[in-house]
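Dear colleagues,

For the upcoming journal club I promised to circulate an example of a predicted protein-ligand complex. I picked one with flavin-adenine dinucleotide because it came up in last month's discussion. The inputs are reproduced below in full, followed by the predicted structure.
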Amino acid sequence: METLTAALLSVLPRDSVITDPVRLRTYECDGLTYHRATPGVVVLPATAEQVARVVRLCNDFGVPFVARGAGTGLSGGALPREDGVLIVTSKMRAILEIDLPNRRAVVEPGVTNLAITEAVREQGYYYAPDPSSQQVCSIGGNVAENSGGAHCLKYGFTVNHVEACEIVTPDGDLVTLDRMDPGYDLLGAFIGSEGTLGIATKITVRLSRAPEAVTTVLAAYESIEQGGQAVSEIIGAGIVPAAIEMMDALAIEAAEAAVACSYPEGAGAVLIVELDGPAAEVERQFARLREICAGAFELRVAADAAERAAIWKGRKSAFAAVGRISPAYIVQDGVVPRTALPGVLAAIDRISAEHGIRVANVFHAGDGNLHPLVLFDDAEPGAGERAEVVSGAILDLCIEHGGSITGEHGVGVDKARYMPRMFSETDLDTMQLVRCAFDPEGLANPGKVFPTPRLCGEVPGVRKGVHPLVESGKAEQF
Ligand SMILES: Cc1cc2nc3c(=O)[nH]c(=O)nc-3n(C[C@H](O)[C@H](O)[C@H](O)COP(=O)(O)OP(=O)(O)OC[C@H]3O[C@@H](n4cnc5c(N)ncnc54)[C@H](O)[C@@H]3O)c2cc1C
């Protein structure tokens, strides 16, 4: 590592290379604090060319590298390597171009998600994907995780809002992947690749026009079943709200304790529904929504932006808020078809009772993206293990119901072990072929996404030049 550090200092200024053991500890985990490792060395490049030079040096020395944005990830994706280089994009925070006629902005990867909206808000535009961490998370991290947010039900995930990415490939080349490129959708492959296919150094995002009208409603129900029923009816009525979010009683209790959001007392569940679009359409949809939500014991409609923010406050702070009601917790992220929500929530209740582990539910109800918060006391012997069992059982439920082990937080290091529950060996080998095409040396964020770290030479299709499907006679020679 010492020789590599000397080489890094030859391509970066002194203050951009961190080796002090105390400062290195700042970077030892992301938002998932129970996976920790001290990076071998941290670098803070200020330009794409510097990122490329660092990656080339990693190749020369055969040393792995991990990209890091703001470190808010919830799957341990930015967990560093003790034998590797952590490449942090916090010095790359420039908004390089705003092109309103073409509704685009070109930004560096360390720019925060919200900064893009703030740069164009006055002109009536915004950047649509809105993770709850948007004040701090970086757009580079959003691209790597294909991040979503409350409004992705109507507007789609990061992948639907990125036009092009300049990336440093795992062998140190600087290339641009563009949505307009003919042939394979390499930009699509890169988005959501969790730092395993290279490092984004410049991102062209799509800007959206702010809607003419927005109506935000909070409906309080006695039970989560009633809230779930309302969600089905809203979607069944052909309404596509900008957002439908739900919180159960425990999540509401946490939010009250943390931010005093003043949600209706005694609610077993609250539903936040946001309608947006042309004023006439929003008015028509709201009239129908009011009928559907007739079973709510309280219906609040935000009269202005301040009241809208007050309604969102509890939901947006929910993850951090559970710290008020539990010393430790696991933020889970799974998806089920919307129609399976009532059954899955009831099953989560049963699992929680069986193991004596409380689970608070906060979720993007419109697209079935659950965020169960599995609460435990880390001072209690065995509680952490039981919480892990509950957490895994919830993911099994998602798979059984035709869903997925992650909706938006990614696989990272945390969920790599669950991948074989969803995918066969052949599926995983096929994914590895994509990774090996970008990163034959396996230096870009190794140990993430895949359950069993393998060198590219050990992946069946690469070793034999024949894909497993070909061997089994199910596909043509690649
Ligand atoms: C309170 C809270 C609320 C959250 N709410 C949401 C939510 O609503 N929706 C949601 O989707 N997520 C949410 N998240 C998760 C997290 O904020 C997102 O995954 C976010 O995109 C991570 O961005 P980051 O800059 O912090 O990335 P990091 O945590 O630094 O890194 C995440 C991954 O991206 C890779 N990476 C980082 N930068 C680059 C780059 N330039 N090029 C290539 N790879 C890179 C890293 O290697 C790692 O694999 C939440 C997190 C918290 C703590």
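Two points we might discuss: Residues 2-88 form a domain with the Uridine Diphospho-n-acetylenolpyruvylglucosamine Reductase; domain 2 fold (CATH 3.30.43.10). The pocket of flavin-adenine dinucleotide is lined by residues 30-31, 66-74, 77-78, 89, 109, 131-133, 137-138, 140-142, 144-145, 147-149, 194-195, 199-200, 319-320, 408-409, 445 (CB under 6 Å).

See you all on Thursday,
B. R.
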